[in-house]
Structures are given as C-alpha cells and as structure tokens.
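Below is one record:
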Amino acid sequence: MERTRDSSPARDEHLDLIFRVMRENEGFLYEHSQALYGETVGLINDGVEHIGTAIKGGAVVQDFVSSSVLYFLTHVLVPVGGAIYVNALVGNLPACFMQLRLALESLAKCYLAD
C-alpha cells in the first residue's frame, strides 16, 4: 500500500486495468446480452424521461420537495440506475441486485407515501 500511495504510475496502471475490464465487459454485454444492456441503460433513461415529463407537465421546485415519487425519480432512480450500470460493467453483480432491490422498495414506499 505504501508503494502504491506514493506512486502515481501504479495508481494509473490500476485505473487502466479497471477501465480495460469495463470496456471489455461493455463490449461483451452489448454483443451477447442485448436485453440486459438495454434494460440497464433504459433504467437511467426512464428516470430522466420521467423527470422531463414532470417538468413539462408543470412540476415546479416545490413539487419535487412535496412529492415522494418525484423525490424518488431524482434522488433514487437516476443515481441508482447509473450505479447499476457501472456495477454491471465492473462485474459487481451482487451490488446490481442490491441496488435494484433498493430502487424497487423505494418506489413502493414513495408511491404509498404520496
């Protein structure tokens, strides 16, 4: 650890390895698992689209504070969707399932709260 802490090239090599693995995994998912790839990317896009729809529908800043579902979209779905995508690329599948559960349970609670 001491050697890595003081050595920028060692840190760069480690990051390069991580990025290479992510690129390889992205290519594999894109080529061999279009369903997973599409759903993962679509989850992020869905959150962004729903936020846009809410804004076009007249939602204002106060609505994002008072509506649990709007809170869910901005503070849970979009960030967790991005995290699921990144974790899928690094091969951290247990985290993907935990984050998916977090999003589902949060949606249910926010829906009931509204």
User: Anything to note?
Assistant: The helical segments are 2-6, 8-32, 34-56, 61-66, 68-90, 93-113. Residues 2-113 form one domain. Residues 34 and 100 are 18 Å apart (CA to CA). The first helix runs from residue 2 to 6.
